[in-house]
Write a structure and sequence with these properties.
- About 45% of the residues lie in helices and about 10% in strands.
- The protein has four helices and two strands.
- The protein has helices at about 5, 10-20, 30-40, 60-70; strands at about 50, 55-60.
- Strand 1 (about 50) and strand 2 (about 55-60) form a beta hairpin.
- Helix 2 crosses helix 4.
- It is globular.
- The relative contact order is 0.20.
Length: about 80
């Protein structure tokens, strides 16, 4: 499922956190919400970045998409 499909299904608080902390490691509870609404995260998805000890990261394109959505633009 693409980010444009699951983004509106997230809670407003989660969308706000992602916008306010765009580019930062995504906490496990937010990754959990994404997987609850979108299913298993496909590591081949264009918005999938990296995962390390800090957590999950969106790709640069994913970060750009979130920024555009947060600014009310049509990503």
């Amino acid at each position: 499922m693409g980010i444009e499909e699951w983004w509106p299904k997230l809670t407003p608080a989660t969308r706000e956190w992602l916008a306010d902390n765009n580019g930062d490691a995504v906490p496990a509870e937010i990754v959990g919400e994404i997987t609850r609404v979108a299913g298993v995260i496909d590591s081949d998805a264009w918005w999938f970045g990296d995962t390390d000890a800090s957590g999950f990261f969106f790709s640069d394109a994913g970060v750009d998409w979130i920024e555009a959505a947060a600014n009310g633009e049509n990503p």
